[in-house]
Amino acid sequence: MADMVAAGMRPTQVIVAATSNGAQFLRMSNTGTIEPNNSADFIVLDANPLDDMTNTRKISSVYLRGASVDRSSYK
Predict the structure, then answer these.
(1) Sign (positive/negative) of CA torsion 31, 34, 40, 44?
(2) With a threshold of 0.85, does the pTM exceed it?
(3) What is the pLDDT along the chain (75 residues), one digit of tens a residue?
(4) I need a labelling partner for 58 at 20 to 30 A (CA). Which of 14, 38, 68, 69 fits?
(5) What residues does each domain of the chain span?
(6) Rounded CA gap, 44 and 69, in Å?
(7) What is the strand order of the sheet 42-45 is part of?
(8) In the prediction, which pLDDT does 50 show?
């Protein structure tokens, strides 16, 4: 994602490309955006990716189908 910003895309464009546009391209309904009745798969970051796209690597927590994922078992 940082490479996409370095290539000239705005951070907001990169995030939309990675989320809602990606879901639309893959024809995945009810994903890619946070809204009622959509699958609640998302990450919480420790820093704002609009300030620096490498902040997408600073993951605080992960949620799948609305439930918090215990990431310690994956390390």
Answers:
(1) positive
(2) no
(3) 999 999 999 999 999 988 888 878 888 888 888 888 888 789 999 999 999 999 999 999 999 988 999 988 876
(4) 38
(5) 2-74
(6) 11
(7) 42-45, 59-64, 67-68
(8) 96
